[in-house]
Predict the structure.
Amino acid sequence: MSSQIIASSASTVVARALSEQERHEIDHELTLYPDKRAVGLEALKIVQKHQGWVSDESLHAVANYLEMSAHELDGVATFFNLIFRQPVGRRVMLFCDSVSCYIMGCDRIKAHISKRLGIDYGETTADGEYTLIPVPCLGDCDRAPVMLMDGEQQRNLTPEKIDALLSRTDAAKTDAADKGDA
Amino acid sequence: MAKISVDGIKYEVNAANNLLQECLSQGLDLPYFCWHPCMGSVGACRQCAVKQYRNAEDTTGTLVMACMTPVTDGGLYSIQDSQAVDFRSHVIESLMISHPHDCPVCEEGGECHLQDMTQMSGHNYRRYDFQKVTHRNQDLGPFINHEMNRCIACYRCVRFYGDYAGGTDLVALASHHHVYFGRHEEGTLESEFSGNLVEVCPTGVFTDKTFSAHYSRKWDLQTAPSICTGCGAGCNTTPGERYGSLRRVVNRYHHDLNGYFLCDRGRFGYDANNSAERVKEALFVQAQINGNAEVPARKPLSATEAARQFNAMAGGDVIGIGSPRASLESNIALQQRVGAENFYPGINDDELASAREVLALMREPGLHCPDIRSLEQSDCVLVVNEDLTNTAARMALALRQATRNAATTMAAAARIPAWQDAAVRELAQHERSPLIILSPQGTRLDDVASDTFLGSVARQVQLLEAIAHCLDPEYSVSSRDPSLTSRAKAIAQALSAARRPCIVSGISAQSTALVRASGNLARALQKARKGDADAPVGLCFAMPEANTLGLVLLAESTGNTLSGALQRLAQKRADAAVVLENDLFRRAATAEVAQALAGHTPLIVIDHLHNAFNARARLLLPAASPSESNGTWVNYEGRAQSAYRVFAPAEPVRAAYEWLTPADPVLLPSISSEEILAQFADAHSAFAVLKDLLPHRLGLSAVMKSPRQLPRYSGRTAMQANSHVHEYRQTQDPQSPLSFSMEGVPLQKDASLLSAAWAPGWNSNQAISKFQDEINGELRQGCKGVHLLQSGQAQASYAPIVLPSEGDLAPYFIEHLFGSEEISAKAVAIQARTVGPYACIGEALAQTLGVAQHGRILLKAGERQVQLPVLIRQRIAPGSIGIYCAGELDRYSLAGGVTVEAVPEAPDLLLRSREMFRHLVISDSWQGRDES
Amino acid sequence: MSDRPLTRNIDMRREPFNLQQYRQAEGYGAVLRMLREQAPADVLETVKNSGLKGRGGAGFPTGLKWSFVPTGEGAPKTKYLVVNADEMEPGTFKDRLLMEGDPHLLIEGMIIAAYTIQASTAYIFLRGEYLRAEKLLRQAIAEAREAGLLGPNIQGSGFSLEIILHTSAGRYICGEETALLNALEGKRANPRAKPPFPQVSGLWGKPTIVNNVETICNLPGIVRYGIDWYKKLGKGADAGTKLCGVSGRVKNPGCWELPLGTPIRELLEERAGGMSDGYALRAFLPGGGSTDFLLPEHLDLTLDYDVIGKAGSRLATGTMIILDDQTCPVGMVGNLMRFFSHESCGWCTPCRDGLPWVDAIFQRLERGEGRHEDLDILTEHLTYLGPGRTFCALAPGAMAPLGSALKHFREDFEAHIGSGGCPWPK
Ligand SMILES: Cc1cc2nc3c(=O)[nH]c(=O)nc-3n(C[C@H](O)[C@H](O)[C@H](O)COP(=O)(O)O)c2cc1C
Ligand code: SF4
Ligand code: FES
C-alpha cells in the first residue's frame, strides 16, 4: 500500500488524465493480480499502446491510478527494454542483433536500413515515421535475420526484402495521404 | 552460540547471524558494501567473499559470500585464502572501473568506506582503460548533494531510503551498468531521514550539502560527543567544528536510542549555531541622553561589566524562569541562584500539567518506558495523537521497523534468518505487525498502519477509554459512545494478542486528559495481561524539547507554573526576572506575556539567538549554544545524557550556567558543569544517579584526557596565522574527560566518549563496529546515560478523566519537523524546507466555505482573527481544523475554539501559497478505514 | 500413442488446433481422468518416476522440484504455478514453436502441474515480443475456460484453476525464475537470493513452482500414456523427447522433436540438412548462447544431459548455434558478450561491471586494437564471473562460450591483436 503525496516539493509534472479505454484496460488487469503494484508494467504497456510511448505525464497518471509513487513506477519502467520513455516513430523496428542473426549477416541488413532511413540504433527518422531499436534474440533463429515491425515478425531479411517492406509502407503512407487530400 | 574457525583461529559466535557480521564482531577485517548492520544482507556487492570448507579434509573449499552465509557450529572458513583474496581484489577493481579519480575534491575523502575497502582489498592500479560510464546529477534539495558518477551500485541508498525509512522518491532506475540511483525527476528528497544517505552511501554520491558550503575534512574537524537538541528523543550526535563555526552533525551510535540513524532536523539544524541572529555580545539597555530627551538604547558591555551588571540587577527578590531547551546544568544554576521557590518552569501551564502526568505514569511500576530500540521490537503499537514523524522523528522511524516484526516472525517459521533482508520482505509482502494510529489528521506513518482513526483529542480520549473498558470491564468510561465499540474491541484484541505491546503518545496537544487516558489504557492492558512481569506494557510520551523532562523534574518540588511567574511580573512582585534560554512568546498567550512585560520588572535574558522576547530584556547575556557548552539533557525516558562542548565560543559568549554562577565577577568564568552536577547530585538524593555521568566514574584523570581532534588534525600552529604568529593556546577544559587537542589517549576506555568514530583502516563512521562489543551491540564500556525516574509505589486506581469540551470546530495544532522547533528553524537549509502558518481543513468544510485548495480563510477566536492559506486534506478528523503556527501565531489564543469564514480569493496570494505548499510533504489518501 | 508427444499436433503451415480439434486428438482426456481418479500425491509420484527433467536450461528433475512445495496442515493455502515462457536465450526458439503450434497442450500441462501442487492460480510469463503466441494463448485459454476446463471447480472435480497470461517487456533476466517472480510482482526484475527457494517462498511470498513451457508440455503425455512409455521415448539415459533446434549456416535450419539420446550428427546432418553449401562446421553451441562450444569431434555424442555435460558443455535448451568456417569466432563471441553485458540486471558487481569490461575488450579486438594483456583480462574474468561468484547464473552462463572460445580459438583471438581490424572477411 503506497501513499500518495498530495502536496509536496515533489513534482513539476501534471498527470495526464487516462482515457476511458486505458482505464478500462488497466481495471481489467487489476482483477488478475492480488496486488495493485503488479499491474504497473502492464498499465504502462497499455498506455504505450495508445500513446506510442510513456511520457512523464502518463507515468504520473498511471502511478496515481495505482496509488504508487511515480518514482517507483519509473524504476520498473526503465528496467525494461520495451517501455519507451522517449517518443518513438510511428513504426518501431525491433531489430534482432543477437548471435544467430549475427551469423546470418544481420550487420549488413542493419547497415542497409541505416543507409536507407538515415538513422542508427535508437534514432527516429526526421519525419517521425521509423525508429530503429536493437532487441535481443527474437526467437526466430532458424529464419534469421529477423526483425519485428508493426507487430509482425519479418524473417530471412535481405536488403531487397527491406526495400520492399519500406516501399510498401511508404506506399501505404502515400495512399493514406492521398485519401486525406480527397 | 557456535564455535567456528576462521583462518585456523577459533571463535565463539552467535549462530543466529551471518558470517560477515560475526567476523566483524570478532574484530576481523572483512570488506563489504551492500551489507549494513541495521539493514541485513542482500548479497549484491560480492565484496565479502570468503572460503568455506566442508571439513578438515576439504582443502579446496568453496567461495561464499560471508554476508549470505549462516554461521554453523564447527564451520571452517578462511578470509586469507588466496582465491578469496583474489576474488575480492577483482570485485573492488571492477567497482572502481567507472569511479572518478576525484578523491581530492570529494567531500567523502578521508572518511570514505570505499577508500577504506579499496585499501583493504588491495587494489592500487587501474587496468581498465576504456571510457567510464558517466551520469547526470540531480538537484535533490537543500540537504543532499548528488554525484552519481561516484556510485558503486551497492543499493544501500535505496534500501535505506525506501525499504527502511519508507521513502518513495529515491529509487534505482535503468539497469545493467547504467543503473542510476535518484529520483525520476529532479527535486527535493521527501523523506525526513534523507540525511542518513550521507552515511549509508559508502562513497561520495550522497553528501551533506550544508557541509559542502563550509567544508572541512573529517580529520580537520574538532568533534565531541553530543546530544541532539532537536526534540526529546535524545539522539546521540557528533557535531564538528573548524575555525569557530559548526560545520556539520553526524550520527553517534547509541545502542538504546538512535542506533545508526538521525532525522533531518537533527542533522541539518546545527547551522542555527552559525546564524546571523546569534547573540554575540552582552547588551544592556541604558537611558541615553539624546539632545534633551532620555532615550533607552542597547549598548554592548564587556564580559566583566556584564557580570557586574547582572549581579547588581539580580541581587534582591528575583524570579528565574527555566528552559526546556537549556541544559540541566543551566537550569540548576538558575534555580540555585534564585532559590527553588522562585524558580519557574518556562513552559506553558497545560504542557507542564501534561508533563507532570507523564512523570507520574513513568514512575508507576508495571508500566515501562521503552527506549527507541524497544520500540523497534514492539509487536503492536498504538500511537495516540502524536504526529511522531514531526515531533520525534527518530521514534517514528523505529515504529516503522516495529511493523516488520510480523515479517521476522513469519520468516523464522519458514526458517529464513532475519538478516536475509530481501528474502524476509519477499516472504512477508504486506504482512505487518499492528500499528494503530489515532490522530486528528493523516500522518506519514499511515502507509504502514494497520488501522488509523481520525478523531479530535476528545474523540481519541473516548476511544482510549472504550478500549480500556474492553480490556477491563471494571474500567468505567467517562462518556460512552456506542459507535466506537467495535473499533475499540478490535484494538483491544490486537493489544492483548501482542507479546510486547506499546502505547506511544506525547504532550504536544498539551492535554492532560489524553495523557491520563493513555495511562489508564496501559493500566487496563497490564491488568488484562495479569501483570506479565517479563513483558510489561510499554508506555511512552514523546517530549517536545531536549530537556522538557529535566526542567519539569527540577521544578517538581514546587507547584510553580509559568503563569504564576507572569502574574508576579505583572503585579511587580519581584525585583528582577532572569529568563533562561526562552522565548516566552512561544510559551503563553501573547496578551499574558505582554501584561507581564508591562509590569516593567527588570528583565535579564540569557540566550544564544535573538528573538522577539529577549529584544525586551534590559540585560541580554550571550549564551553558548548546546555545542559550545557541556551539558546534560533529559530525554523522553527520563534518561540524562552528557554532551560535551565541541568548541569554545568567542568571548564574551559563555554557557548560561557560567553567567549564573560567577564566583567572582572579575575572574570569569567560574564553575564547571561537572561541579554543578556533582554538587546538585550530592544535595538531592533523587538526582544522585547524575554522579554516574561524571568522568571520575571512569577513572579518567586530568592527564589521561581523550582528544577532541583526530591524530591528523592539521594546521594547529597555522590556523590563526592570519591574525598572529603564535600558536594559540588550547582551550582548557579541566574537569571534562576531553581535551581540546589531538594529544591524549587515542583509544578511550569509554567508547561513548569517542569524539569521532575512527579506527586504523576504518576512516568512515562505519568504524563504530570496532567499538561495539558485537555488531549492533553495546559500545564497549559505553555510558548510556542514567535514568532519573525510579519506579515508585504502585498506583492501583485509574486516573479520573474529564472529557475535553470541543466546540463545533475543534482546532488541533500541526507540527512540522522543519519549522516547529525554535532553534533548528534558524538553520538556512532547514528554512528552505519550512512553510508559514496555514490552516488545514477537510473537503466537506472546504465545500461549505467555498474555498479551493491553497485558497484563504479567516480564522476567528474571540477578539483575534487571522487570514490563513488553506490546505485541504482528504485525511482529517471531521469537525476539526488543523492550525500550523510556524512559531508566528499565538496558539494559546486559538486553542479555545475557532470559527472560520471564507475570504475572497486573491490570485497573487493563491500563487504565493501554492509556491509555499510545494515545500510540504504530506501523505494522504491512504486506503485505510476512516472514522466517519 | 505418438513418439512425438510434444509436436504431434503441430503443423506450422496451418493454424493450431482449436479446442475441438485438440480434443479430437485425445486432448484433455487424460487430465480429466486424472482430476477424477488421481490424488495430487499420485500425480507427483508419476512425474517423479517419469524421469522428466526441466527443459528450461538447468535440467533439474521436475518431480523432485515439485516435492519441495510444502503440503498438509501448516502449509500456506495459496500456491502458484508459473510457466516460464520468457524465451530470450540467444539462439533459442523452441518454446515459441510449442505455444504457436499447440497452445492447448500447454494449458493441459498446466492443469496437471497446478493440480499436483494444488495451485489455483497459474501465470504464464510470456516474453513481450511473442505477439502471435500471446494471441493464440489468449484464444486457447478463453476456449478452455468456456468449456469448463479452466475456472472454478473444473468439471465438478472440486479443483479450480485460473490461468493468467502476463506479457513482459523485454528483459532476458526475467527468464531467471526468481527475477521472473519479481517482475510478476511489478518490481525490478533482479533475481532473489536462494535459499529460500520459490517452492517455499515464491510469488508474493507463497510457495511457487516455476517451469519451462516445454517441461509443462511433457506432462499430458506422461499422464496419458504412463511412465514406461515416456521412459522408452528416450534412446539413452534420459527419458522422453526434446525439442532441438539448429540455427546458423545450415541448409535447413529449424526445430524438431527428437528422442533424448539422439546423436548430434543426426540432428545436424539429417534434420538440418548439413552445412550450407560452401560452409564447413567449425564448432557449435549445443544448447543456446550460454553453453560451451563443442567441436566437430563431438558430433557423435548423443543429446543427453550427462553425455554433453561430460564433454564440457550443457544440453541446456537444446537449440544449437552453428559456427561455420567463415564466421569470425571472436565476432560471434563478442556478439554474445554484448548481449549478456546489456542484459545484466545490474544487481551484483562481477556481472554488472565485469561484463562491460569484457564487452569493451571485444570491441577493441574487433577494431584490431587489442593487446595481449586483454586476453589475460578475459581469462581472469572466466573465474571472476564463474559459478558461485555471482548472484545468479547469468554471468557464469556468459562465461561458458567465452571460456571455451578462448580455449578453442586462441589463434583467432591472437590474430585480432595488432591486425588493424578483424581479419575475417565481412
Ligand atoms: C539468466 C537466465 C535466464 C533464463 N531464462 C530462461 C528462460 O527464458 N526460459 C526458461 O524456461 N528458463 C530460463 N532460465 C532457467 C530458469 O531460471 C529456471 O531454471 C527454469 O525456468 C525452470 O524450469 P524447468 O525446471 O522446467 O527447466 C534462465 C536462467 C537464467 C539464469
Ligand atoms: S549475475 Fe548478478 S548482475 Fe548479473 S544478472 Fe545475475 S544478479 Fe544480475
Ligand atoms: S556485503 Fe556481502 S555481498 Fe555485499
The longest strand of chain B covers residues 864-873. Confidence is low (pLDDT under 50) at residues 926-932 of chain B.
